[in-house]
Amino acid sequence: MSTSSTVDRAFRAALHESGDTALDTGASLLAADPAADIELARRGEEFLSTLWRRGWQPADVVRIVRRRLDDVHVRTVSELIRAQAPRDDRPRGPRWKAQLERLGAEGPDASPRADRFSHATAVLELYRLLLRLPALEPLDETAAPRPRDRRPESRMLGRIRALLAKAEATGFPEEAEALSAKAQELMARHSVDEAVLASREPSGEVPGACRIEVEPPYEQAKAVLLDAVAGANHCRAVWNEPFGFSTVVGFASDLEAVELLHTSLLVQATTAMTRAEAAQRAGGRKRTKTFRQSFMAAYAHRVGTRLAAAAETEVSDDLLPVLASRAVAVTDRTDRLFPETTTTRLRGVSDAAGWEEGARAADGAQVGAHPRLP
Length: 374
Fold this sequence. Notes:
Elements: H1 3-14, H2 20-31, H3 37-53, H4 58-68, H5 71-84, H6 94-106, H7 116-132, H8 147-169, H9 173-200, E1 208-213, H10 219-232, E2 236-240, E3 245-250, H11 252-282, H12 289-313, H13 320-337, H14 352-364
Helix pairs in contact: 1-2, 2-7, 3-5, 4-5, 5-7, 8-9, 8-11, 9-11, 10-11, 10-12, 11-14, 12-14
């Protein structure tokens, strides 16, 4: 019997059926034929190639596997992605390459492999999931950044990332505030420089899109926070709740600013919530999930209000025409990607103390402001 035949029989038994019995049958066939391992891996790479054509990216696949399955499946799909990458003949942009680099930085799995039957079971469970994933909106990078701009931009964003990382790592609130403030100052300067350059030297750049993880717990509040950050940075965000991400549409430099600011605000929110809970416990008041849910909802709402106010009052008249033109382009790209969207309301916001603490934390969060042009 050929190895291809073994894999075909295992797939017929396990992939299109549900339940453990079908899975056990397929895994038994694969476990009994070690020669089928190479063909099994090749079929996995084919599943990935199909997903790439259907709009998925490496980080999306790893995220959904982590969300739906276990660590062993995450390690397996990461190995498959790394193995498939050299045979991927489609041109990929910098975000795709960065996702592969993050997988490569994790290195190969050092844990011992399970017995053949358990390994085959995990592979079939993974392939079941990959086979059933629907198509996503394609996020192909349609315009490469201008070569002469990339090096200074990378240096600036590298400095911002370094400052935010230090702010998140320090145990001293005053130092964290100073580092965050400096990072926001650089971020605002970078955004203004890009807008001025676009107004003076039109380059034909068009809006792109990226997906940013929005994971439980408190994913509704996190999605609201990301939407506020996106809007303040001339982007649009659309939340996909079932798959745990939001798609953010905007110009390249603004997308990077959204990722950085959203991450920093989440870290600040978590730190502030932990501190608020400790104070509540010290006062003899036991707090639950409703406290944390209300805290995050208030934090997202209040930060959104502050960001919106800053966006309305601190944009120079010099920038209005180019920002209006870029806003039209972003809206058009968003509408083409998502012709139908719905709105949702925050649920589970019922703890007054949590709301008050979240609003107070948002008032102290470092959000920065766009400086006026001279």
